[in-house]
Every structure is written in structure tokens, then in C-alpha cells.
UniProtKB/TrEMBL annotation:
InterPro entries: ICDH/IPMDH, IsoCit/isopropylmalate_DH_CS, IsoPropMal-DH-like_dom, TTC_DH. Keywords: Manganese, Metal-binding, NAD, Oxidoreductase. It catalyses: (R)-malate + NAD(+) = pyruvate + CO2 + NADH. It comes from Rhodoferax lithotrophicus. Pfam families: Iso_dh. This is D-malate dehydrogenase (decarboxylating). Its cofactor is Mg(2+); Mn(2+). It is an enzyme of class 1 (oxidoreductase).
Length: 364
């Protein structure tokens, strides 16, 4: 049996609580299918590591992680101790850039047993499957740029500047991924998030590239919305969307909003992909370290578990992915007496829900 090497980084806060549940479910599915998985744990990319070493990562982190087939990540950030931009630019954002994980794939789907806070126009509840979109977020450039600076700090003349960077290669490659994804889905519908009415240099360029790329995918229905009205449409008619592609910042915002429309951001997974597989890809929940609930053992582990399913799919184990998704659905059906964490209206613990899902993996 060939063994896949997974680098495991739990990180901060609830990352440490949801990660064991992700691993529990992964082990259950690996047993079921006879998949060989080796988990190598790393303590860096966390406040604990920073406190000891004065930096978020060891100097040779690329060597330490580079030989792995994938990285399974929890969450990072402990703003009470270290400013977020320092911890994030010192860890997760480096992984995305240095490992060229230029696609951030973020599904948002209404699952059984969860009530969507966004109802239909006639006031009736939306049903599972009715919201089923994938946000494709550009993940290595755009608004997340380190080009800029601060001058005359603390004086009346203070000036701060941060440039948005869009390269043709960078935009085209994520668009190509998004179009191909749309083409592979039944609705074949792609929506582009823009703001070319106000951000008058980079965003018209983005629109131009979308138009150009659309010529290669004539069977994909394409539309675009400015980001302001797009957020309104997400809330008022989330069922309209299929694949939604956006720049780094727009994709970030939409990928919290989409899952929020499906009931809780805690279930949302993500895959930071280097599609060429030159570097390891990274799989993590969309949510962060949630300092407000960390240490209580009540975080919902589904985002972490679903991210693990996406990782297995990317590593070639589609059937294992499908079993985890089925187990998640089974565990969420109220008739099955599933434990629910507080974000889902229950009082179960992280472990209760993780165990229930692992049990369903054995059963389905
Ligand atoms: P957050 O996602 O950590 O939390 C937002 C809200 O959602 C909180 O009320 C939290 O309790 C709740 N929540 C999040 N995940 C949950 C879960 N699994 N179960 C139940 N409730 C959950 O966002 P934030 O508060 O903006 O950020 C906190 C820290 O995490 C910051 O340091 C931020 O920079 C960092 N962050 C990291 C990542 C990442 O590692 N990818 C992502 C987002 C935020
Ligand atoms: C995410 C997070 C990160 C981002 C932060 C923590 C830098 O919000 O993964 O969505 O903005 O990419
Ligand atoms: Mn985010």
C-alpha cells in the first residue's frame, strides 16, 4: 500500500480542538478503504511557537513541509498576543504564496438538518441542495499585496499605500480553473465578482480577462455583478449561484457570506490548491481560530472534517471523500439523533459531533 504523507498543523485556538476530529474521521475512512495515511505533526504557525521562537515558522519550513503530499491545516491567529497581520503574513499567507496555491476552492452548500437563515421570497424555507455554490478565490495576488508602505508615520503628513497586483498569468490561471469547474457542473454557470465601476484600473482588467476566457468555454453561461450588489444577491437568491469567481479579497468576503447563507460558517471547507501539484496543497476550514469560544470544546468540527474530505479527493480518493460527505449528511439529520454543537442550536461538544460523524463513516 502506498502511503500519503500529510503534514498536520493545528495552529491556534479552536484549530487545536477541531483538528483531532478531522483526523478521527480521516482515520475512520482510511480504515474503511485501506488507504495508507501518515500524519506528521508540526507545532509551528501558532502563537505558542512564536512565543518560544520569536517567529511563526522555522527558517527551513519549506523543506519540512515540501516533501508532503498535502498539508492539513486548522486555523492561525491569536490577536490578543500577536497582531493578525504579523501572524498571518508570517504563516498561512506564506504557505499560499510560496507553494503557489493560487486557487482557493470554497464550496457553500445547504446541508440536511440545517435551517438556512435566508428564506425564499414567499417566506418558505430553503431545502438542502437548493444552495449549492463553489467560490473560486484567487489566492496569491490581488488586494493581498505587500507592495506599498508607510511614510511620515505619526505626523500630519502620514501616508499609507498598498497596491493591488493583478498579473495576466495570475488572473487567467484562476479563471481557467473556474471555467473548467463550471463546465463540469450541471448548471454550467459562472459568476464573476467585480467592481469595475469604481476600481477603475485593476477591475476592468479582471472583466476583460473574464470576457476573453469565456470565448474558450461557449457552453458556460457567464454573468458578472459588482461586489456590492453581489452580496445582496447572495442573501436574496443564493440558489441562483453555481461557480462564483473573485479576486483575493472579494473571494474572501464571499466565502464567509456564502456559508453564512447556509446556516453556519463553521461547516465551510476550503482547498488551497496548486493544481499542477508542483507543491503541496493545503486544506483548512474557512473559519479562523475563534478566540471567543476557544478552550470550551464546543467548536463545530465539520469545516475541518469536510476539508479533510476535499484533501482525500485531491489525493485521488474520491470514494473516501464521498463517504465523508454522506456521513456528514447522516450525522446532521435530526431524526438520527445527531449531536449538534451550539452554532447549530444544540449543546453537544466538538468531540461528540466528531465521534458521531466517524461512526457514520463506518455505517455508510
Ligand atoms: P473566526 O472565524 O475565528 O470566528 C468568527 C465567529 O464564528 C466567532 O464568533 C466564532 O466563535 C465563530 N466560529 C468560527 N468557527 C467556528 C466553529 N468551528 N464552530 C463554532 N463557531 C465558530 O473569525 P475571526 O473572529 O474574525 O478571527 C479570529 C482569528 O482567526 C483572527 O486571528 C483571524 O485573523 C484568524 N483567522 C484565521 C483564519 C485561518 O486560519 N484560515 C481564517 C479566518 C480568521
Ligand atoms: C481566510 C482568512 C485569511 C484570508 C486571513 C486570516 C488572512 O480570512 O482564509 O479566509 O483573508 O485569506
Ligand atoms: Mn476569510
Amino acid at each position: 500500500m502506498s502511503v500519503k504523507k500529510i503534514a498536520v498543523i493545528a495552529g491556534d485556538g479552536i484549530g487545536k480542538e477541531v483538528m483531532p476530529e478531522g483526523l478521527r474521521v480521516m482515520e475512520a475512512v482510511a480504515d474503511k478503504f485501506g488507504i495508507g495515511l501518515q500524519f506528521d505533526h508540526f507545532d509551528f504557525s501558532s502563537w505558542d511557537y512564536f512565543e518560544k521562537h520569536g517567529q511563526m515558522l522555522p527558517d527551513n519550513w519549506k523543506d519540512q513541509l515540501g516533501g508532503h503530499d498535502a498539508i492539513y491545516f486548522g486555523a492561525v491567529g491569536w490577536p490578543e498576543k500577536i497582531p493578525d497581520h504579523v501572524s498571518l503574513w508570517g504563516s498561512l499567507l506564506q504557505f499560499r504564496r510560496e507553494f503557489d496555491q493560487y486557487v482557493n476552492l470554497r464550496p457553500a452548500r445547504l446541508m440536511p438538518g440545517i435551517i438556512a437563515p435566508v428564506v425564499r421570497r414567499d417566506g418558505t424555507a430553503r431545502q438542502p441542495g437548493e444552495i449549492d455554490m463553489v467560490i473560486v478565490r484567487e489566492n496569491t495576488e490581488g488586494e493581498y499585496s505587500s507592495i506599498g508602505g508607510r511614510m511620515f508615520a505619526g505626523t500630519e503628513r502620514e501616508i499609507v499605500l498598498q497596491e493591488t497586483v493583478m498579473t495576466r498569468t495570475g488572473v487567467d490561471r484562476v479563471l481557467k480553473f473556474a471555467f473548467e469547474l463550471a463546465q463540469s457542473r450541471p448548471k454550467k454557470h459562472l459568476t464573476s465578482a467585480t467592481k469595475s465601476n469604481g476600481i477603475a484600473i485593476t477591475m476592468p482588467f479582471w472583466d476583460e480577462r473574464v470576457l476573453e476566457m469565456s470565448k474558450y468555454y461557449p457552453d458556460v453561461k457567464v454573468d458578472k455583478f459588482h461586489i456590492d450588489i453581489l452580496t445582496a444577491h447572495f442573501v436574496q437568491r443564493p440558489d441562483f449561484f453555481d461557480v462564483v469567481v473573485g479576486s483575493n479579497l472579494f473571494g474572501d468576503i464571499l466565502s464567509d457570506l456564502g456559508p453564512a447563507c447556509t446556516g453556519t460558517i463553521a461547516i465551510a471547507p476550503s482547498a488551497n490548491l496548486n493544481p499542477e501539484r508542483k507543491f503541496p496543497s493545503l486544506f483548512e476550514p474557512v473559519h479562523g481560530s475563534a478566540p471567543d469560544i476557544a478552550g470550551k470544546g464546543i467548536a463545530n468540527p465539520i469545516g475541518q472534517i469536510w476539508s479533510g474530505a476535499m484533501m482525500l479527493d485531491f489525493l485521488g480518493f474520491k470514494a473516501a471523500h464521498d463517504v465523508i460527505l454522506k456521513a456528514l449528511e447522516q450525522a446532521l439529520i435530526p431524526d438520527n439523533g445527531a449531536p449538534r454543537t451550539p452554532d447549530l442550536g444544540g449543546n453537544a461538544t466538538t468531540q461528540d459531533l466528531g465521534r458521531a460523524i466517524a461512526k457514520h463513516v463506518e455505517l455508510v
